[in-house]
Design goal:
- By secondary structure, this protein is mostly beta strands.
- The protein has a single domain, classed as Neuraminidase (6 Propeller).
- It is built from 1 helix and 23 strands.
- The strands form 6 sheets. Strands 3, 12, 13, 14, 15 and 16 form a 6-stranded antiparallel β-sheet that branches.
- The two termini are 26 Å apart.
Length: 281
């Protein structure tokens, strides 16, 4: 199984579970330098304090309007942020109060996920109806991303991976054509490789890179970021400095590859970080 190392000298590995006939061990990608990503994650190009209502910001996505969409884990409001300043441009009520953890835009609809796995498709006009995916609060869903290639939503679980699985973190798929959640995870992350010591890697946010199709997965608890190929092979793993990432739970890309990561405030305001792609990437 491919092993890449965090700055903490921590080995990580991942495998893909869509095809039961695939080997659980991914082959090493010799073209990728361990821990490399095309962003300087210790030196953001922009750092913005967010409005007080976003102190507990818990999800981030890029909207077709050219703004960032955000939710926080108490109020059923969609916040639209100016990506050049982090300022709230607009607020819209999509549902009642709840524990909202991620969001993703698909066409004209913004999908929001609650920690118990319930989904809320919001058209910007009427209150969203709840869709029960069959996941529970014990699964502790913490991230949502739209997989345009397969026209599905990916739901990252911080807690119980379900299906009697052990020693893995699971990412399930919700098929937007059939309206059904996959019985088996679309991706699994091997905890024996993720958690050999120190804080555990628990997914808190995920997003697809618009050019490469790679899946970027955040962990607020571990303060780390891993990058998976579209097939689920681990391509990079990096540690995130605590001074910039007190509790990173939101991640999104602009169409040009600009990366945004949001963190809950550690007794202070929430923050939004902006990273331009490195010039030699």
């Amino acid at each position: 199984m491919l092993r890449l190392f965090l700055l903490l000298a921590l080995p990580l590995a991942a495998c893909h579970a869509d095809d039961a006939s695939r080997s659980a061990a991914a082959q090493p990608d010799t073209t990728t330098r361990p821990g490399s990503v095309p962003y300087d994650l210790a030196n953001p190009d922009g750092r913005f304090r967010l409005a007080p209502r976003l102190r507990e910001i818990s999800g981030l996505t890029w909207l077709s309007s050219g703004r960032l969409g955000a939710v926080q884990d108490e109020d059923g409001d969609l916040f639209e942020l100016d990506p050049s300043s982090g300022e709230v441009v607009r607020e819209s009520r999509f549902h009642g109060d709840g524990d909202y953890e991620g969001l993703a835009q698909v066409g004209d609809t913004v999908w929001v996920v609650e920690s118990d796995g319930d989904l809320y498709p919001f058209d910007g006009r009427t209150e969203a109806d709840k869709i029960d995916t069959g996941l529970k609060r014990s699964n502790d869903v913490e991230g949502l991303a739209y997989d345009a290639v397969h026209h599905r939503l990916l739901l990252a679980l911080k807690g119980d991976p379900g299906n009697g699985l052990r020693r893995v973190r699971a990412i399930y798929a919700y098929d937007l054509t059939t309206g059904e959640r996959s019985d088996e995870p679309a991706f699994t992350l091997d905890r024996d490789q993720l958690d050999p010591g120190g804080a555990p890697f628990k997914p808190s946010g995920l997003a697809f890179h618009p050019a490469t199709g790679e899946l970027y997965v955040l962990s607020a608890v571990r303060r780390a970021l891993i990058v998976l190929s579209p097939e689920g092979e681990l391509r990079a793993a990096v540690a995130l400095p605590a001074r910039l990432y007190p509790q990173a739970e939101g991640i999104a890309f602009a169409p040009d590859g600009t990366l945004f990561i949001s963190s809950e405030g550690d007794g202070t305001a929430g923050t939004l970080l902006r990273f331009l792609p490195l010039s030699d990437s």
